[in-house]
Amino acid sequence: MKIIRPIACSIAAACLLLAPISHAQSESLTGKMHEYKDDVSLSNGQIRAGDVCVNFIPVMQSLGFFNGLERIDTPRGSEFRRNSQPVDFFPDYLTIEINIRIEVCDANIYTPAKTPDIIKGMQFRVQWKRGLYLRPAANVTIERKPLQMEEGDNRMLYVIKLRDHSVPLSDHLILSVISANGKIMSRMSARL
Asked: Are 102 and 115 in contact (CB under 8 A)?
């Protein structure tokens, strides 16, 4: 009986010492999880011209690629999976739809406003960001789509298609609105 007690205490102490390690290992395997749906919203952008606000609402899509994609945040960084299989790269083809609403700033309800001169000749720039470094996205096409709206409603829709290969899911997509004279007026981003 006297021999069993020290052995039992040693086993109990070992279990208490190893419990945080096994908990940390299980936490690193599971981590905090975020599951995506059909599309990914970028941060919204805005340009103010007096009391007129030009609001940019971009969404990134790719033929169901994001549906069911999971990001698991671990102490080692983010890991991406779908159906328990690792996913490392963005798809080669991405589409970004940018809904633009031109309205009176700080109004209680949506109040359309006249298009300000500041956005005439605006352009878009798409880049990938890794750490502090930006590089241009490859093969980018930009098209303005017609919208059927009620009279007085002031909205625009742009569709950006990009074809790029082997872009890691850990990179951020950066979408900039550039003025006619080349200055950045607004910047939006998507981080998975």
From this structure: yes
